From TrEMBL:
It is a multi-pass membrane protein. Its main location: membrane. GO terms for cellular component: plasma membrane. The keyword Transmembrane helix applies. InterPro entries: FAD-bd_8, FAD-bd_FR_type, RBOH/FRE, Riboflavin_synthase-like_b-brl. This is Respiratory burst oxidase protein H-like. Belongs to the RBOH (TC 5.B.1.3) family. It comes from the Eukaryota. One of its GO terms (molecular function) is NAD(P)H oxidase H2O2-forming activity. Keywords: Calcium, FAD, Flavoprotein, Membrane, Metal-binding, NADP, Oxidoreductase, Peroxidase, Transmembrane, Transmembrane helix. It holds the Pfam family FAD_binding_8. Residues 17-110 form the FAD-binding FR-type domain. It is found in: Membrane.
Length: 110
């Protein structure tokens, strides 16, 4: 039974056909290793407070999806998640955004 639940959870985004591509509007790294991502909200994407979404970052892994609670309000025109870096994948996600943010800062300074 645990294997079936694990497999079902992993194919869930594909099975439901709810694979939405989004653009990152803003990323902030807070103290305590918290990464906040603000994304465009796909058209007709509806959710209620307390719901979660699955995030995949192909630069880290092409097939890994990770669930995160949605931290934006349903009426906002964007989606946000706040991710605490606790494991390998979330640490790599934070590091990926840290590199991009550093390169952007260099471009705006020079």
């Amino acid at each position: 039974v645990p294997l079936v639940l694990y497999a079902t959870e992993r194919i869930h985004p594909f099975y439901k056909g709810k694979d939405h591509r989004v653009s990152i509007i803003k990323a902030i790294i807070y103290t305590g290793n918290v990464l906040a991502l603000y994304m465009t909200k796909p058209p007709a994407f509806k959710y209620k407070s307390g719901m979660y979404l699955f995030v995949k970052c192909p630069d880290i892994s092409k097939y890994e999806w990770h669930p995160f609670s949605i931290t934006s309000a349903p009426g906002d025109d964007y989606l946000s998640v706040h991710i605490r870096t606790l494991g390998d994948w979330t640490t790599e996600l934070r590091n990926t955004f840290a590199k991009v943010m550093f390169m952007y800062e260099l471009k705006t300074i020079c």
